[in-house]
């Protein structure tokens, strides 16, 4: 039998993951850190009620066998501060530059999921000298509009958007349904523990605040503010796009288009996966990521 999990190195080789804090621009930022040697890799989680642990829990350890790994809870998420600001790509790009300065990391490899992918793209375009390798995972920022765009615009600019978080955190059944509908294709990967973790995140104080702000700013009547398709040709860093074949939020066609725009880039489509491929098939995801960072 030749499973994805069997292709991973033995679990006992995994480095311990530490919980650390750093102050950036007056904000107290939480991060998961692992690995003592190798080049630095920064993992950026997605939006909604996401966090470093939710997205990267099964990736940090395997990656830390060869790298120093940093996975922050972005402002507005997880255990980090949640300031009253306009959350948008420009805010997070500036924040990331200052965070890397605080960690004394002049150059890193960036791996970003969804909103984190958009931040990684934005940062690479703004600071190309600071990015060694780039891995956008089902990234936001590579399409001009979302599905049912004007209906979505009306929705996120109405009280219904915030109300949806209230419904979401009323039951674990709603959380499980949402995970299977948009994030994870394999029901066996939607464990009781994962459901409990996402449910707890949805009930945390100010959950959804940052994402609601991001949506209101980013969705205009005619399109998305965060759209880098016309600038992707500027990226020179070795780049790997990883994308779920069945992602309902960022259709794989946009990943193929983005891949075509970045000279020399690679594209790995994870068959059958939705928007959370590192949770859907962690063995395959980790193997592809480690090999790219090692060989590129």
Quick rundown:
The protein is an alpha/beta fold.
- CATH class group: Alpha Beta
Q: How many domains in all?
A: 1
* SSE class: alpha/beta
**What proportion strand?**
15-25%
Radius of gyration: 18 Å
Low-confidence stretches: 1-12
**CATH architectural type:** 3-Layer(aba) Sandwich
Q: How many strand units? A: 8
Output the strand order for the largest sheet: 1-2-4-3-5-6
Number of helices: 11
Sequence of secondary-structure elements: EEEHEHEHEHHHHHEHEHH
What is the CATH homologous superfamily assignment?
Alpha/Beta hydrolase fold, catalytic domain
User: How is the CATH topology named?
Assistant: Rossmann fold
Largest sheet: 6 strands, mixed
Question: How far is the first residue's CA from the last residue's CA?
Answer: 29 Å
The chain-level mean pLDDT equals: 93
Question: Which shape, going by the Cα principal axes?
Answer: globular
Helix fraction by DSSP (H/I, runs of at least 4): 25-40%
Structural account:
By secondary structure, the protein is an alpha/beta fold. It has one domain: Alpha/Beta hydrolase fold, catalytic domain (Rossmann fold), CATH 3.40.50. It is 39% helix and 17% strand. It contains 11 helices and 8 strands. The chain has helices spanning 52-63, 89-102, 115-126, 149-156, 159-168, 172-182, 192-202, 209-218, 252-261, 277-280, 282-295, and strands at 17-24, 27-34, 40-44, 68-72, 108-113, 131-137, 240-244, 266-270. Strands 1-2-4-3-5-6 form a 6-stranded mixed beta sheet, sandwiched between helices. Strands 7-8 form a two-stranded parallel sheet. Helix 3 links the parallel strand 5 (108-113) and strand 6 (131-137). Helix 2 packs across helix 3. The protein is globular, with a radius of gyration of 18 Å.
